[in-house]
Fold this sequence. Notes:
Layout: H1 5-21, H2 29-38, H3 56-66, E1 86-88, E2 97-99
Antiparallel strand pairs: 1-2
Amino acid sequence: MVPGGCCSLVVVPLLAVFVGTGLVKVDVTPLCAALGALLPKYVPKTTDGKPLVIPNKEIRRFLETYGMKGPMATRPESEQPSLRGVYMFDQMGPAGWIDFSYLIRDTNIP
């Protein structure tokens, strides 16, 4: 006897074919969000065990001091690329910011 009967032998493979061919759209975002909620929250700590908190004004001061210093920052508006500015990403450590003023733009590519 097959567990689930005819349903598991016909419907599951048929659904897999429909999803694989794009006839049925499946959004897995809610599933990923639910699985992510099961993970423990990561809170970086200092050497004395307190949670590491950096005030926004210090982050803003750092980005103003070290960001937008590349050669693209001084170009005229017509020569600026579509990506501009400084972007910061949460929970990615020291590599979590990108300064597009250092972007090298190839003018031969439209």
